[in-house]
Sequence to fold (300 residues):
Amino acid sequence: MTLISSLFLGAASLLCVARTSTAIPYASNDLARALLKRHQVVFEDCGGDNDDKRKKAGQAWSEAANLASATIDGKLDDGTSFKDTNAFKHYFEAADSETTRAMYSGIQAGSSGDSGNGFQLKFIITCKETDDCKDSLALTDAKPNKDDFTARIRLCPKFFTDDRTKNFLTSKSLKRNPGRRENSWCQPGQPFVFFETASHTFLHEMTHLNQLGVEAGLFPDHKGADDAHGTEDIYQIAKGYNPGSPEKSSRKLKDNWVKYEKDKKNKKPELQRTENAESYAAAATEFFFQKQCGWDEIME
Fold:
């Protein structure tokens, strides 16, 4: 893993860098503040409790935990569990189910603020702009925590203005079969980008954290840098993947593994499915809206 794990977006390829639970429909700002007060997670340069940046960062984190939680025990209307849905199968194989559950469980439990939890995340959420931000949404410095270092998720200025991060899960209703002009997430025929939220991006960044990589049983990164166990981004380390569309790159990674496992003459992918950050974020986002809207598919 590189020092800075990143998220890319846009046509111009902009650089952006087993516990059970019950998922709640939405997380409020009050809940986000309560979680943060019971945590080894701190804000830097995001303003006070009532600052817009602070509130957006806190809600993005609490909703990311909510997205992860929904995958653990949530089911579609027909009783189908996450691992048997298209949301899972677009990005993972059946053999990945334990690892993905451990990752999502780590995100949920580590973000719960419950002092009784043995697993507590420790990282810094910073809103300070650096030269690395440029046109980025977010960056994660994901080296292992040490006495003199704490991992950071940096929310860049674009995180607070970009179309892909302007919405929360609460920004629209979840009314099924809405009218064409109704402001509902459940508008039929929408592409994946329609469903992206600030919480989607924050979940992506969280999977880069070394603590969560260890919790999920991931191996250190493919180059061995800093012994970091968090996820990486396939479009950063391999050719042939579109950095402007992380979810499509993640589906392609899964498809390339299917081709390789069918015929070893095909090129072996450079990254495991469970080592790719966007695979977790995209699968969780798809499942949340499939579950809420009564669907079995979301288009690329």
In short: The first strand starts at residue 4 and ends at 6. Strands lie at 4-6, 40-44, 122-126, 138-141, 152-155.
